[in-house]
Amino acid sequence: MIDRPQQLSPPQGPVRLPVRPAAGRYLVLLTVFVCAACGLVYELELVALASYLIGDSVTQASVVLSLMVFAMGIGSLLAKRLRCRAAVGFGVLELTLALVGGCSALVLYASFAWAGEARIVLVGFSLAIGVLIGAEIPLLMSLIQRISRRDAEGTVADLFAADYVGALVGGLAFPFLLLPWLGQLTSGLLTGAVNALAGGALVLWLFRHELTPRSRGWLLFANFSVLCLLGIATVLVDDFEEAARTAVYGDHVRVAVHTGVQEIVLTGSRSGPLELFLDGRLRVSGRDEHRYHEALVHPAMAGPHHRVLILGGGNGLAAREVLRYPRVAAVTIVELDPAVVHLARTDPALTELNRHAYRDRRIRVVHADPFSWLRIPHGPYDVVIVDLPDPGITQSTKFYSQEFYGLAARTIAPGGRIVVHAGPLVSRPRTYWTVEATLRAAGYGTSSYRATGRRSSFAAGPDRAHDTEAAPHDWGFLLAAPGRTPALGLTPGAPPLRSLTPVSLATAAGNAEHTRPPGLAPSTLVHPRYTD
């Protein structure tokens, strides 16, 4: 049975306020607005950082949001015990939430950097923040009804309206303001400070007559302490991030930049090989990148290759191999992140590795999302090279969908070919062969092969949480052509290669077929079938 509205009020009488009741009511609603915005920022920060550290953004968002909603219900029930002392309870609650929520991203990143595991911490913060957020509305309901007991139904409506509008503002502020300007760690600390100030101002000023001198003194001291802690953490956040980055990537971090697309980290020393990390995942290692890029490019070049399209590959390494063919007249590189291309043009170690590919006048760079770019007809191209992140990463699944390959087919000239990096074959055969099934569903014939001798492993980023014994030791590729099965081989008179020969290519193709599981369905935009 639903309680009557008048029963929602705590038993105390009207409270003494330093302002008129109408003004006090609006101040409470303003606090609801601010607290709701802060609460949603905490949630989104956990989702964003967990997706970066652990991977698979769909899973991380589902875990964080479902745990928080569950914990909010627990918090609402627990708040019943505090309603008799709503002002003190709300003051303590907001201080706790400001400290826990403000430092959540910092602690989550620290646990990942030094312990190599962030899942347990993520669950703990999701539950703790959810409980604290869930307890806010019942206490605020008690406080606003202390101001005026009239129109209880309207009070409930006003509280929830302020809560929902605040959540909207927080949800928009995080991706468009806080994250690009301040970053994940600083924005979390700043949000905690705003949360503490809003809660402290409401209790220590508007409801100060509800507090005993002792309670007022303790709350003032606690507010000051929390704000000092958050301020010190904000001042030291750059040093913390540098130390954490060293713990993750090693002592030889040369470049670390956050772009509007991803985090880019370059490591390496004069005595060690260059390594390129994108969003914490190792993408290029000077130890073995030649094995990957030779296997990616040269089988596709066995045929007409006058015009070549590279989707991704902003580091210039696939272009380096393509430009070794004198008959190539034009190379188009479609790379979403301009910062990757800038580094490939200017970083001494990376330019040496790609042999200054971007100095070649045959190259044209387009900064666009490859999927969106393909929606407008281009070409025709004799060779299309898909050099994009593994399909197991949630953000990349659209580039391994039936729709994507259908768009790519429109750019391929008669007799042309497309080559796709489909992830490691031995450790993730289901993902690899799902890519093959998707290509076939889009009307391609396929030839499968892999490159072995992979020396770089999951040494940093999300991959640190994986068992090194299960780290991939090969790369899987698919050579395809619309309406026909392309022959797998190398061009007679091809440039000399360090790791690929016609014999090794034929052996790799035979080994790949032995791993094919039966009955795999293609992946589409509305039904992705890859898992991280």
From TrEMBL:
Alphabetical list of HAMAP family matching this protein: Spermidine_synth
Active-site residues annotated for this sequence: 387
Amino acids binding S-methyl-5'-thioadenosine: 262, 335
Transmembrane portions of the chain: 26-54, 60-79, 91-114, 120-144, 156-179, 185-206, 218-237
Protein function: Catalyzes the irreversible transfer of a propylamine group from the amino donor S-adenosylmethioninamine (decarboxy-AdoMet) to putrescine (1,4-diaminobutane) to yield spermidine.
PANTHER family: THERMOSPERMINE SYNTHASE ACAULIS5
Pfam short name (any one): Spermine_synth
Keywords noted in UniProt: Cell membrane, Membrane, Polyamine biosynthesis, Spermidine biosynthesis, Transferase, Transmembrane, Transmembrane helix
UniProt family annotation: Belongs to the spermidine/spermine synthase family.
SUPFAM superfamilies linked to this entry: MFS general substrate transporter (SSF103473), S-adenosyl-L-methionine-dependent methyltransferases (SSF53335)
InterPro entries to which the protein is assigned, alphabetical: MFS_trans_sf (IPR036259), PABS (IPR030374), PABS_CS (IPR030373), SAM-dependent_MTases_sf (IPR029063), Spermi_synthase (IPR001045)
The protein's Enzyme Commission number: 2.5.1.16
Domain PABS: 234-482
UniProt-recorded name of the protein: Polyamine aminopropyltransferase
Name of the gene this protein is made from: speE
Annotated region (Disordered), positions in chain: 508-532
Membrane-protein topology: Multi-pass membrane protein
Enzyme class: transferase
GO molecular function: spermidine synthase activity
UniProt main location, coarse: membrane
Location of the protein in the cell: Cell membrane
Catalytic activity: S-adenosyl 3-(methylsulfanyl)propylamine + putrescine = S-methyl-5'-thioadenosine + spermidine + H(+)
Subunit composition and interactions: Homodimer or homotetramer.
Pathway: Amine and polyamine biosynthesis; spermidine biosynthesis; spermidine from putrescine: step 1/1
Binding site for spermidine: 293, 315
